[in-house]
Amino acid sequence: MANETAVREAGRDFIRDIIAADLESGRIAAIVTRFPPEPNGYLHIGHAKSIGLNFGVAEEFGGCCHLRFDDTNPAKEEQEYIDAIKRDVRWLGFDWGEHLHHASDYFERLYEWAECLIGQGKAYVDDQSQEQIRASRGTLTEPGTDSPWRNRSAGDNLDLFRRMRAGEFANGARVLRAKIDMASGNINFRDPVLYRIIHAAHPRTGTSWCIYPSYDFAHGQSDAIEHITHSICTLEFEDHRPLYDWFIANLPVPSRPHQYEFARLNLTYTVLSKRVLTELVRRGIVDGWDDPRMPTLAGLRRRGVPPEAVREFIRMVGVAKANSIVDVAMFDHAVRDHLNRRALRRMAVLRPLKVVIENYPEGADEELAAINKPEDESAGTRRVPFGREIFIERDDFMENPPKKFFRLSPGREVRLRYAYFIKCREAVKNAAGEVVALRCTYDPETRGGNAPDGRKVQATLHWVSAAHALEAEIRLYNPLFTRPDPGADGDVTRDINPNSLEVLSGCRVEPALEDAQAGVGIQFERQGYFCRDEAPGATALIFNRTLSLRESK
Ligand code: ATP
Ligand code: MG
Description:
3 domains; alpha/beta; 7-stranded mixed β-sheet; CATH 2.40.240.10; binds adenosine-5'-triphosphate
């Protein structure tokens, strides 16, 4: 049986152990999981952990994974988010096949089940305001107090609930609550709210409804309707599990899902709260949900992070039952590791300084062979144009170098990668005394970058031909926050890194980069990993830095 092989290979964490045992014991015939986002924002790297787990186990154990939108609050949910979530799950490399579902598909059934609870005397319409309900809920150490409306008759409750549905009351005028136990040690049992009045158009059901189920009332029942076998969620829902089980026990649901909780992903220097991310977008602190500084999947994609690296990172992090904080350096490592193996090398000069090679024939040029990927011969070579005027990196030259500076300075010889040895004769300065160009000579005998007489140089520089290079804008992204635990003092906006983005214009890149594709990582030699910006309709060449070549540069 295919399942058996999968079971043996995949038992790597407690969730997989549970699934393997359930399949082995025959408690279930096949597993069904789901990823249940609320479409009130974009997905982030934390969601990727949940996606990787739910879709991953379904794949490994020969089951299936549903994508279900928990679209129960039209006041906060938008079609834009629904579309973005689908795009990002696909980008990560997962496929829900025919199993695209919405909590809103079940609104009618959930409503019937609410009436069913009313009929059993297990739910009532409460006229208290939201504030009153909150105030009478009690605390962890003190019991709550009963609502004055708690003992309405089933008939009255049914009548009022139907009138809520019919739109007779304003937002917040009434709610439907479960009637469980206001003194329960588990606050979730203190008569949780099942339905709220929200007069707002829903992206899918339009204005058919003006009452909406709470997340708690919709979630477990949606799982039951979809015959989810393992409802995997994060630890903060552990205390909700008894409530979900209570609903399942009291309603004629078609199946009984089991919930298992795992630790959410936390990352240093990163905020993974949708509420805070929404604030950053709304206040314009970042340039939208897909700003490359955002931990959203859309932001990571635009920054040039490959989906394979995200999946590899998720795999490295693993699945545990205790909360912890992962060092963002581990994420960067996964990204560098992938790009180092995959990215083609190109030359780009970020802060150009012109070099005139005085003994190179005027008006002439030539093409030199450059290696696309040093560790992978099959990636081949390309031709890079060379001429009398080139650009090098401004900080590869120093007029009065300190002892340890081995790159270009007056009288010093260096190698131009794939080209020639050049020697600096003099620095040309403007009226303000700033170096604006260098006058150099080259040794025609060193074509390809080696001297026949065996003499050595101490540095190899990247460069581009001034006549052939393309102009580009290059955006250098740095961490969005200055401290590993942003917001620990209360306000995350105080921890925003003022240098999280540096935009360089007038950069020069080799002509082959004209065809660079968004989403395909490139290594700019000696500079880092970059990718073309995916801004739709952009004609200018823009590159985003994914990461520098090494940690902390
Ligand atoms: P909120 O519910 O506050 O809007 P959320 O991040 O929980 O925010 P959901 O859309 O409910 O958003 O999340 C969908 C799924 O992703 C949930 O099952 C949730 O447990 C999981 N998830 C969210 N954040 C993380 C995280 N940091 N690590 C792992 N899983 C996460
Ligand atoms: Mg949530």
